[in-house]
Amino acid sequence: MLRLAASSSLKFSRSFSMTVPASSSPRHLVSMLELSNTELKSLVDRALHFKTQIKSGEKAPKEVSEALLGKLVALIFSKRSTRTRISTEGAAVYFGGHPMFLGKDDIQLGVNESFYDTTRVVSSMTSCIFARVNSHSEIQELCKHSSVPIINALCDKFHPLQAIADLVTIKETYGDLKGLKLAWIGDSNNVINDLAVAALRFGINVSVATPTGADFDTSIAEQASKIGQENGAAFTLTHNPLEAAHEADILVTDTFVSMGQEAEALQKLQQFAGFQITNELAKKAGAKPDWKFMHCLPRHHEEVDDEVFYSDRSIVFQEAENRLYAALAAIEGFVINKGKLE
């Protein structure tokens, strides 16, 4: 699915609360639900801009490469990562900032110090905080008390940077997005929660197939349906992978066993029988002849076979690279431009 301001007033009681003046509260990137269609499209376009600029080999203008010169970018990671760590550190360096990785074994958070205390301390010394945490409530706590922007780099409910990277990848591949169909075949998790909303904002039809017992979040489904209606896109839920993949342009999945669920692995794999993405499944379902495959990685064989994963249909490594450009767009929009995205 950690901050403060110098002028903040503190109220102490048995349970104390901190009041931060509204005018000093930074804007945070929590999920795709908090963005307007225009704001999301701006983030995607800016990510594509950064990719073009970097691929050209030309240096960024000085006002860009020194936008965070002399400033720290905190990376609070409770969970290990490959793409998220590389992309966020790379994005900080691009703007002249200094990334500081703060893993669960590096700081006092959760050991000798509360979320509140850690947030106030870290945000007082940094320009922003990328937070890759366990629960959504931890992201909410960070946002509540931080004096600098919090960028959600993953929680158990949302994964906004992945959604931005995915839309960049789809736009690179198809150009015009309206009317495409994206089929999710897998678990109901943070990735599809944000990806569904993001795709619907672009007019992409979304069909989600999850096994019985892994139902899509009801609250997010209601909001996604409304966003779909506003943008002329259909949002459907099913437990049948063949139904979801019918006439799909893009087939997407993710891990069936998330970090922290290793003890449930055997049970989960039994639950997801018949959900592996293969050429046979796509053919049987009647997916579009030129369908593409996406996965946020790391990938396991039970989710997609090698024939699809390493084929020309697969755009997973392009998708992974685009995490860098998504992070660049997020820093520019929420940190440098202070949340003004349009």
Automatic annotation (TrEMBL):
Location of the Aspartate/ornithine carbamoyltransferase Asp/Orn-binding domain: 178-329
Keyword check for Amino-acid biosynthesis, yes or no: yes
Q: Which InterPro entries match?
A: Asp/Orn_carbamoyltranf_P-bd, Asp/Orn_carbamoylTrfase, Asp/Orn_carbamoylTrfase_sf, Asp_carbamoyltransf_Asp/Orn-bd, Orn/put_carbamltrans
Q: Which SUPFAM superfamilies does this one have?
A: Aspartate/ornithine carbamoyltransferase (SSF53671)
Pathways per UniProt: Amino-acid biosynthesis; L-arginine biosynthesis; L-arginine from L-ornithine and carbamoyl phosphate: step 1/3
A GO biological-process term:
citrulline biosynthetic process
Q: What is its EC number?
A: 2.1.3.3
Record-stated family: Belongs to the aspartate/ornithine carbamoyltransferase superfamily. OTCase family.
Listed name of the protein: ornithine carbamoyltransferase
**Species classification:** Eukaryota, Fungi, Dikarya, Ascomycota, Saccharomycotina
